[in-house]
Amino acid sequence: MSARACLTAALDAARDWHSALPAVSVFCPWPDDLKWADHSPTPGPAIALVQSNPGACIGAARPLLAALQAIAEDVEWRHSYTEDEVGRHFLDTFGWFELAGPTGHFITHQTRITVGYWGPGLNYPRHQHAPEELYTVVSGEAQFMADGEADCTLHTGDTRFHASNQPHAMITHASPVLTLVFWRGDGLADPPRMTT
Known about the structure:
5-stranded antiparallel sheet; Jelly Rolls
């Protein structure tokens, strides 16, 4: 199967996941302006980790996990932070890519859909960004923290909303976490910034 066909299958699985989680379908409609964009794959440490250690996954998330593992070698992996900000170990066990959005493998200006992987034992420091976001956990688990809200540990199928410019953070313990994140609002293509 070609890379484009695999990415299309992953997009279809993401759409099914969107439909399966009421919080997501309320947060944003599925985009109707999606157009293929031919991005070259970028290697990254998350490729092998997503394929070998995605964390526990149950139920309706299994097809999405399989689709994301299938495209791990075909996507444009990115890092948003420097080693000075997060440390070498973080960068060696983290990665994300934009499945759909203003600069994604599928272009849309209605929303942004990203995939993020954090390995075990990582501290994702407090950061913020203009767009609102809704995390969904595909596999594994992580502790989520946001200013003004109680900390919570999320597992497969759980969601967490972050308001515009609401500082938030995440910690993984023994398990990694693989997420599919939906974004809405202004500044979809803007990078996050560390909260001082």
